[in-house]
Structures are given as C-alpha cells and as structure tokens.
C-alpha cells in the first residue's frame, strides 16, 4: 500500500503478511479522499478509524494534515503495526486495542469522520449495528459522516441514516449522516 497524497505522498508501507487485513485499494482510497476533500479541511478535523487493520486510511488522513486520529482494532498485531508505523513517520495516531462493538458501546467521543472497514463477510446486521451504535451514542459532530466500506454484495441502503453509496470495483463506500432537521 502507498500513501497517495500529502506530506508522505508516494511512501510505501508494507504490512506483515501475518496480519488479518484487507487494505483498501489505492484506487478506492483515492476516490474516497476526492469525495472527502470536497466537504472537509483535513487539517481541522478528527477521525475515528474502526477495524483499522493496517492503518492504511489513517496514514492517508495524517499525511493530509489531520492531527486527531484514533484507530481501533481488536488484533494486537494490527495495533502494534499501526503504532510502530505512526511512530516511525511521526504521525499523530492514537491506537486502541478493543473489539469495535464494545468500544462503540462504552466510549464517549465526538468526531468528524468515522471510517469503518469490517470484514467483508460480516452479516448485514453487523454492518447495520455499527451505524446504529455510532448514531445512538452520538459519536459524530453535527456535520460528521460515517463511512462503512463493504463488498458490492452487501446493501446498506435501508439502514437508518444512510445517505448514499459509491462503488469502486469490488468495494463500496456507504455514507451515513445525521438527519437534517
């Protein structure tokens, strides 16, 4: 994987093969950041990266100037790799080793962007539970967005707070937002 833009543009990051990850492809990641670039100033937002895996998305945010990034993953190897990589590039990434659902049930924080990249083979109810917990527990700031990456075989359009989806090859990004009153 490589960092597409920002201060670390072009840097390659090689994760250990033993990590249980499926990094977001460069094409999908570039498309996602093109969308986000139209709505956010990266140097003035906070990001929560759920099912962070290799930290691929968090490194991209950090390279673009985001200084408040929290990664959550239950795999110790993933958390260790993210921490080591963040330290080696001097990136402002905090890591939390936790089951994402337990974290969402207990944590109290507000953030601009939540990116969740759970295993593609999750049942649709588990994907929906992520959105449910994020909105029930008010994790997003008023103009914030939850983005869930999933396979094209999963349809989240009926989940509450769904806004739209963008398809990139075999990956889909579903966007969820606070309802406008």
UniProtKB/TrEMBL annotation:
Keywords (A to Z) from UniProt: Methyltransferase, Transferase
Domain of life where this protein originates: Bacteria
GO molecular function terms attached to this record: 16S rRNA (guanine(966)-N(2))-methyltransferase activity; nucleic acid binding
Pfam family, one: Cons_hypoth95
Catalytic class of the enzyme: transferase
Keyword Lipid biosynthesis: no
Enzyme nomenclature, EC number: 2.1.1.171
PROSITE patterns given in the database record: N6_MTASE
Protein name: 16S rRNA (Guanine(966)-N(2))-methyltransferase RsmD
Organism: Aestuariibaculum marinum
